[in-house]
Each structure stands twice: as C-alpha cells, then as structure tokens.
Write a structure and sequence with these properties.
alpha+beta, eight-stranded mixed sheet, globular
Length: about 400
C-alpha cells in the first residue's frame, strides 16, 4: 500500500512516531513510495493517547502536509526540520498539533529574518532533538520507572502513570528551562572571553579521557543489573567531580568519560581527583586518564581534532590508576606555575618560594598511530615540602 504525500489528509487515524522520540512526520519528495503504510494504527490504547495529549498539551489535528502549509513552510523544509529533530516519517497521518505548527513557524521565521541560515536552523533542530531525546529516554527508563510502582495491590503501573506525569510535567519543564538558561549563560561567558573571533570556534582547551580498565572482561562476569549500576556510579562520580572543579563533561561512553577544561591546571586536578576518588572505591575497576592541550574544534557540544585524538591515545597507553599528559600540557603547567618545568626549578622551589601543585615525570617516547612519535609525561601530585 502506498501513501499519497500530496494529499491533505490520507487518514484520520492517529499514530505515533516509529522512533519514540516525539511527533512523527511525513515523507518528503525524496522518499520512495513503496514503503510500509504508516497510517495503519499500531495501537488503540486510550491511555497512550491521553498521555500524549497531556504531555503535548494539545490534540492531534494536522497531517504533516497540513502542518507545513499552516506554518507557511515547504514540505521539503518541514521534513528536514522534523528529521533533524529525530521524528519518524509516517506519511500523512493526522498526528501533529498546534505546537508542531508553531515550532515550524518559529524556525522558518528565524531563517526569513536572517538570524539563522537554513543549515544553521537545521543544526539547531538536530542538536536540540538529540539532546532532549536522550534526556527523555533517561527520565522514562530511570526516573519514572522507579516512581510508578503501584502503591497498592491491584493497581497497574499504567494507572499510576497519568496522575504522576500530570503532577511532574510542569515542574520538570520549569527545571529544564532553568538549567538550559544557566548552561547557556556559562557557555556564552566562555565565548565572549575568547581572545579573538577564531578562538570562539577553534579554541585552545585541555581535553581529558578517563577510561575504566578491563571493562570488557567485567561485561562477561557481571550480571546486567550489576553492570548498569557500576556504569551509573562511574558516570555520576565523574560528572560530579568534573563539574565541581570547573571542567565540562562532554560525553560519557559507558566505560569512558570525555571532559574539557579551559586551563591545564583544572584538567590535571580533575584527572587526579578521578584517580583518587575511584581508587578509594573497592567496587570500581582501576582507572587511567590521558590529557592533551591544544586547539580543539567544538561542534554541537562535542569536541574534535588532533588534540582530542591525542588525549584518547594517551589514555590507551596509560598505566593503571595513572595520568599521562602530552608535552603541550606539561609545558602549560610549567608556564602557569602549577608544576616545575625542570628538576632544577624543582630544587629551587624553596628558595623561590614557589609551591607546585603537580609533579611531571617524562616517560618513554613511542610512536602513536596517526600522530607520530610522542613523549608522554606522568602526572602526579607533588608531595608537600617538609620543613627542615
């Protein structure tokens, strides 16, 4: 069965998106017509419809074609926006609301006003969609699941869900906006303090990877629930330490955490805190950290470039419960007075009145795939000077 993409409404049957990330969308002119008919109703569950209406704040009213036309946007551009946000193609089912029309109108309005280019508007849609999709999945899987346990025998989880969502939704919405504004203010502050326009995009940052040792073996030995608890504990501890000491958590990858800091000293302090904190937890595997300092390209909240690759390679060769840094970060720690630049300067510490936070030990030179020969430095805390 095929779907007429130009019809104003091929079906009045409400359906949900196939990817679970939000409202579904219609196919654009580039999508072949020999796919499954998405206007077939997958479920008649009235509670699912009621929950959707509660969360979206409106009833299904428009087909994708009708929503695009009401917003004054071409179907092709509407499809680009919806797909960027992570919404599934569903042909021309009547599944969109006034909020979908308003969102299209706003994005298109920013382009028409010259505030955003069309590619930039699509990027805004993609970054927002990817971030909020992960947040929504986490909240449903972890947060709501624990709260919707039936309070008394005979009640089902679904019977508890609706009133709970009704109570939580406005509070979570307000909290989300608050956190977003706080994060936006912090990010804007970092950008305006950049030395020049180029540094706003390609910046000099310290980038660190923290990696759990032997994680693959753990996946074979631990039960799924135990493994999940270990990963959650690792990510939570790492996120708290990174934030508390002035870094930024870029992403977590189960057994690995990527973070960045504006200065070398902050990145070094975070690395050692991670080693010390997780090392004191007997339930945690050993940890290794690699840090590099240099120019980094930032896109959609992620970081890219040679500096990031070098930090990753240093992590892979770091000894257990140790931190390896590259020469650029070692040099930067010396320049800022956080570590001695040489043994001679360390010997003169008392005379000069310096108080170094860290110690650096040059390690063996070795070739690193794709990066040539590097000379890592072992980063440790400097033992406090004992008065004579």
């Amino acid at each position: 069965m095929t779907v007429d993409d130009t019809a104003s409404g091929a079906s009045n049957t409400p359906v949900t998106g196939g990817n679970g990330h939000g409202a579904p969308i219609g196919r654009d002119q580039h999508t072949p017509h020999h796919e499954v008919d998405h206007t077939v109703e997958p479920t008649a569950d009235p509670l699912a419809i009621r929950l959707e209406q509660l969360i979206l704040g409106a009833e299904r009213r428009y087909t994708p074609f009708q929503a695009a036309r009401s917003a004054g946007v071409s179907m092709e551009l509407a499809s680009r926006f919806w797909r960027a946000m992570g919404f599934a193609d569903i042909g021309q089912a009547k599944a969109l609301t006034e909020a979908d029309v308003l969102a299209l109108r706003r994005l298109a309005g920013l382009v028409e006003a010259g505030l955003l280019s069309e590619p930039m508007a699509v990027q805004v849609a993609r970054s927002t969609g990817q971030t909020t999709a992960r947040l929504a999945e986490w909240q449903i899987d972890s947060f709501l699941e624990g709260l919707t346990e039936p309070p008394e025998p005979g009640m089902t989880r679904t019977e508890v869900t609706y009133p709970l969502v009704e109570l939580l939704l406005p509070e979570l919405e307000e909290f989300l906006v608050y956190v977003w504004r706080r994060q936006l203010a912090a990010a804007t502050g970092r950008v305006v303090q950049a030395a020049d326009d180029e540094e706003m995009v390609d910046r000099r940052l310290a980038v660190g990877f923290a990696d759990l040792v032997g994680f693959t073996r753990l996946t074979r030995r631990l039960e799924e629930e135990e493994l999940g608890e270990l990963v959650e504990a690792f990510e939570t501890t790492a996120a708290d330490l990174v934030a508390a000491h002035g870094g930024r958590l870029i992403k977590t990858l189960g057994d690995e955490v990527l973070y960045a800091a504006d200065d070398a000293g902050t990145a070094a302090e975070i690395a050692l805190r991670l080693i010390e904190t997780l090392g004191a937890d007997e339930s945690m595997p050993e940890l290794r950290v690699g840090i590099a300092f240099g120019t980094v390209t930032t896109r959609m909240g992620d970081v890219f470039g040679t500096t990031v690759n070098l930090a990753s390679r240093l992590t892979s060769i770091a000894p257990k419960d140790s931190v390896l840094v590259d020469g650029a970060l070692a040099e930067e720690l010396g320049r800022t007075g956080d570590a001695p630049v040489s043994e001679k300067s360390a010997e003169l510490e008392g005379e000069a009145g310096a108080s170094y936070r860290f110690a650096l030990q040059p390690m063996w030179q070795r070739p690193v795939r794709g990066l040539g020969v590097v000379e890592p430095w072992l980063l440790t805390r400097r033992a406090p000077k004992i008065p004579g």
